[in-house]
Fold these 2 entries.
Entry 1:
Amino acid sequence: MVIRINIPGNEYEILIARGVIQDVKSYIPDEKKILVVTDDGVPSIYADAVVSQFSHAYKFVIKQGDANKNLRQYEDVLNALSQHAFTRSDALITVGGGMVGDLAGFAAATYMRGIDFYNIPTTLLSQVDSSIGGKVAVNLSGIKNTVGAFYHPKRVFIDPDTLNTLDQRLFNEGLVEAIKMAATNDARLFEYIEHCRDIKSNIEDIIVRALLIKKKVVESDPKEKGPRMVLNFGHTVGHAIETLGKGKYYHGEAVAMGMLYTSDNEAKTRIENLLCRLGLPLKDEFSTPELMGVIAHDKKAKSGGVTLCLVDQIGSSKLVSTPLEEIEQRIARRKKA
Ligand SMILES: NC(=O)c1ccc[n+]([C@@H]2O[C@H](COP(=O)([O-])OP(=O)(O)OC[C@H]3O[C@@H](n4cnc5c(N)ncnc54)[C@H](O)[C@@H]3O)[C@@H](O)[C@H]2O)c1
């Protein structure tokens, strides 16, 4: 399956196929030098499979984990490119989850003002979400994605077989992002996931349909000026839960709980039932003042309000600029329920 992203000046293909990781060379000129960047939590078979296809490829392994998505590791990638005398006609390939894609993608965006970048996402979250849309970044002093750019890959290769080595908790975290896209944009996909009894065997379908939503959203708002904020469904409260949890909850788990604060009526019931069936956490243990403390300090809280993505009916959503007092009431209501 091929999905084409059409952003003016940045047209590229996403190839989705089982086993495609063994065949990336067919799409990248062999005369280029290639730096394959992965992290030490990604099974090495994936990066090795890519390196072995090229005559001039080097593997560079960074430390896993979001705490390591920092300027030091970014500089390490730049140094690796420089030490191997990469020029602007060479290329970088990322093999890993969103952390590797964001960090090494940013290195590709900035090394010599930009070299070709190919992305091979290997977590479900990166396959349905972070590998397209062009956002690359590192954290600054622990604050997420403060330094970054919009820089699109030349091509994305999605091999659902790489998910076989992903543990269930990480798999579910990625699924939350697909559910988020379905809940806000595609009632039929939501229904499909609701009724799917063997999600792993049908994951290729879910990835493709989630990517088609992300494609539509990203093409309509490449620089995240407005409509793309629909992808933040669940993230305002979710981010607060993630921050207060200090590592207890994965991002996707926090977003799952966050979605339940910003959905209503039948949509809320259906999302809750689906998350419950998948074994995702539904309620956090933090008080309304604790959650509000983080939300009020969030960088997105502009002049006393936050743009919330609200879902009242599965498949559609509204972006509503919401005063902090209303958010507080929403949170308190759910806490009481
Ligand atoms: N650019 C965007 O638009 C965007 C969107 C959402 C999230 N993000 C970013 O993505 C990152 C999170 O991405 P993630 O959830 O993929 O986490 P991640 O990249 O940290 O990967 C999670 C863990 O899974 C391991 N792993 C990766 N692939 C594996 C595989 N196939 N088998 C076994 N283990 C594997 C990694 O080593 C890591 O330990 C965050 O930094 C977040 O800010 C970016």
Entry 2:
Amino acid sequence: MAAQTVIETRELSKYYGEYAAVDDLTFTVQEGEIFGFLGPNGAGKTTTILMLLGLTEPSTGEARVCGFNPIREPLKVKRLVGYLPEDVGFYRDMTARENLQYVARLNHIPEEISSGKIDEALDIVGLSQEAEKKVGAFSRGMSQRLGIAEVLIKDPRICFLDEPTLGLDPDGAIRMIELIQSLSSDRKITMLICSHNLDQVQRISQRVGIMIKGKLVAVGPMGELAKEKLGVGKEKYTLEEIYMKYFREV
Ligand SMILES: Nc1ncnc2c1ncn2[C@@H]1O[C@H](COP(=O)(O)OP(=O)(O)OP(=O)(O)O)[C@@H](O)[C@H]1O
Ligand SMILES: [Mg+2]
């Protein structure tokens, strides 16, 4: 059976004044994929995610998430999507569990269902022991993992993860990547991941998109991009080599 397209943009652009932060972006992500969304600082990745979430309006073009227009049907999109932002924000005076309870209420999840979901999510991200600790006392990695727990209690079909391993120690980053991979394979959640850590993206992604100065300069399976950019003879490649080839051409 052909995979279903769950994320789609068509000639999507976002201007801030004269400046094109996102410039004529057309791409799709298929259901169940882990899609690596790459590009240097300021390329327009976060802006694209904000448009897909309906949090900022496109200047021109269109976005669709599971067939819904995020600007016209924001609640439908919100129900299907989990979002880990660049800076996860929680109430510092509240415990991890209280923060998740608050999120569950915001999402209208009844308490008899949410308490089980919260336990499960805390367990998945390895924070069960820290559940009653105030988030103000959390390390960056713990907050990041709580961010994933927050995403999970919504049971999303799609996750947008903006720099999920930023600031994590090597062990924490590996565990985060393995967690993302297992959520993709066990729960079939489609993942769009922005990251500057190309080794990690290479480990888990099926397809990648490379965005530079607002434009998508490459999109496809890594093997195909490697053939195109590094030559057919190069069977062992790194995503970093592919990325740098595109980066140097712009
Ligand atoms: N609200 C805003 N007003 C004006 N310019 C903005 C705004 N938000 C983003 N930009 C600009 O749009 C461009 C793209 O920014 P964006 O945050 O999408 O980049 P990014 O690819 O996520 O970068 P990074 O890897 O650093 O997170 C940048 O030049 C940024 O300065
Ligand atoms: Mg960003």
